[in-house]
Amino acid sequence: MYSLDFSVVLDRFPELLWGCVGTLALALAGTVLALAIGLSGVLLRRSRIAAARAAVKVFVEIIRNTSFIPSFRRCKKSIELACV
User: Fold this and answer.
1) End-to-end CA distance of the chain
2) Which of 18, 35, 52, 81 could crosslink 44 through cysteines, CB 3.0-4.6 Å?
């Protein structure tokens, strides 16, 4: 029969807890950064400046790794087929 030995884990428990705290801090910082980028993107997307709207559109297309034009063409073609 096997016996589990957790003495190594218990000996290093404070370091493990600090690792968890560090991971949670990084996750929170990433969430705040993503929220800031997203909100600024929304504000720029609604901007009157065409270059700002275009920059946000390009950024979103690159991050999504999808192209707007082919998906628009597919959507247009499916709408045309549905109307026939």
Assistant:
1) 73
2) 52
